[in-house]
Every structure is written in structure tokens, then in C-alpha cells.
Amino acid sequence: MTAVATMPSVRGRLTPNAPLAPLVWFKSGGSAEWLFEPKDEEDLVSFLKDLDPETPVMALGLGSNLIVRDGGVPGVVIRLGKAFSKIEKVDDVTLRCGGGASGILVSSTARDAGIAGLEFLRGIPGTVGGFVRMNGGAYGREVSDILVSARLVLRSGEVVEWPIEKLGYTYRHSEVPAGAVVIEGVFRGAPGDPEAIGAEMDAIARAREESQPLRSRTGGSTFKNPPGHKAWALVDAAGCRGLTMGDAQVSEKHCNFLLNLGSATSAEIEALGEEVRRRVEAKTHITLEWEIQRVGDA
């Protein structure tokens, strides 16, 4: 990776050659050339404005749906901290949530405010920035069902608020531009009873615990569900349940999850995923698409 000669001055934390493995669920992969944790919105905006336009920028949330390749990530990785985790009530059914707020925090805040319809966020192990960008979903709902607008800092440092129509949502995809950082999402639900909302969230938490390998080093759902199919069932039918490559394994509990059994490299995890795709295509003639983001240099 190339060294960036000069970096803009910041008020937050700017760390060169920052290991990313501790920050992602798989606990594998290389370092960020630079890791920037902005102090606040102003710090982020001025940094991006002053940063060489050729320097790549990537936002990192909770690192759940991500493979960081072993060669690391060139340019700047931006991680939003506490200053970006605030949640405000806009009206009786609407919340404005910082890009660093977790799905659990958003759904719990909605519950306490008597706002129904956001319960499914309890089942998304990510931050607002991440699930707004990829139209995250769980238990039959997705972000596009509840989002009103999103506030972004573009790669140029310009701050924009985009209505949902401009985000171009499709299944697990949006038109959020490369290098942009989602700093807020506005979500709208419906009036509800906090007790009933809480019960629904508890049911989601139980279902996740029973069906997914949550206590493992994993990356969440590996492949998108093809139209009319469940990815896990295709993986299972292709005989891939429990398949290993080095220390990487297809989960026996939920075979749309890959696991790092201890010392798997990102290369092994990604190669295992590619082998699963190959076997599924050979067996079913269906091409699985990655849902997990794979970033950086091999």
C-alpha cells in the first residue's frame, strides 16, 4: 500500500496502519492504511474536504457483514463513534438516528417511545450507517420500509440530505455513492404499545439465538437470497453444511453463515465462500451473490 504523504489535521483520532481484524466480526484481515475516528460532524466534513481526492475512503460500522482481505485496506477507513450515535424524536412516530447508532439501540429507543415497525432492527447486527447503505433487512422487513431520508457526507465533504427515493433501494443495495459516509437516518414507524413492541423484539432475539451461530466469529448472512429461494437451503442441498477450508467453515447451525474457527485468514474465508458458490451453481444452476462486503487487497 502507498503511504499518504500528508493528511489533513483532525480533532478526532487518525491512526496509521491500524489493524482492522479486532474491529470486524470475523477477526481476520489486514490493516487500514489510515483509520479515522472523527470527533464530530464538523471534523469529518473538514477532513474529507481537505483530503486528496484520489485517496479512497470507506466507512466501517460494527464490521459484521464484512471480509477485510489480508492485504488490508488502502486509503482511509472511517469509523463513527459516540458523537454519531445520538437519537432524537422528530414526532410521535419518527426518529432521527446517528449513523453510529446500533440496530439494538434504534429499536429499543423506538420501543420506549411507543413506535412500532422498527422491531426488526433488533435482528440486524450493524449500525444505521451500514444498514441504510445496504438496505439491511431481517424477519420480512427492510430499511426501505421505514426510512424517510438519510443524511450523507459525500466524498467531497459536501453534506446532503437525500429522500428515500434518491437512495435507489433494491434488495440489499442502495445508490449511496462510494466514499460517502451515512451520518444520519430518519425512520418512521406507527403508534404502538411499548409492551407489545418489546415482546416482538424479544421473539426476534430468541429466533436469532436459536437459528444463528451468534457466539462465533462470523460475518452474518453470506449470500443474498435468490428470487424464490433461500440461500441457506441451496447451500445445504449442495452438500456444503460443515464444509471447511483451513480454519474457515460453513456453519452447521445455519449454512448461510461462514465461521472462523480460530485462525482462518480472510483468504480462506473468501475462498470457502467461492467454493460454496461453485458447488451450488453446479448442483442447481443458480448463481449465489455475495451479501457480505469484501474489501481491501488480497
Describe it:
By secondary structure, the protein is of the alpha+beta class. It folds into three domains: 13-82, 2-Layer Sandwich (Uridine Diphospho-n-acetylenolpyruvylglucosamine Reductase, domain 2), CATH 3.30.43.10; 85-211, 2-Layer Sandwich (Uridine Diphospho-n-acetylenolpyruvylglucosamine Reductase, domain 3); 217-295, Uridine Diphospho-n-acetylenolpyruvylglucosamine Reductase, domain 1. Helix content is 23%, strand content 27%. It is built from six helices and 19 strands. It has helices at 41-50, 103-112, 128-133, 194-211, 231-237, 266-284, and strands spanning 13-19, 31-37, 57-60, 66-68, 73-79, 87-91, 94-98, 115-116, 137-138, 141-142, 147-153, 159-163, 181-188, 190-191, 217-218, 244-245, 248-250, 258-260, 293-295. The strands form six sheets. Strands 6-7-13-11-12 form a five-stranded antiparallel beta sheet. It has a four-stranded mixed beta sheet with strand order 1-2-5-3, with no helix packed on it. A hairpin with a 2-residue loop joins strand 9 (137-138) and strand 10 (141-142). It is globular.
Helical content, roughly?
10-25%
What do the pLDDT scores average to? Answer: 96
The strand line-up of the biggest sheet is: 6-7-13-11-12
- Backbone structural class: alpha+beta
Got a strand count?
Answer: 19
Largest sheet composition:
5 strands, antiparallel
The topology string of helices and strands comes to EEHEEEEEHEHEEEEEEHEHEEEHE
Number of self-contained structural domains: 3
CATH architecture of the largest domain: 2-Layer Sandwich
Through-space gap between termini: 11 Å
CATH topology of the largest domain: Uridine Diphospho-n-acetylenolpyruvylglucosamine Reductase, domain 3
Task: Name the shape in a single word.
Answer: globular
Uncertain regions: pLDDT < 50 for 5+ in a row? none
Gyration radius over CA: 19 Å
The total of helices stands at 6
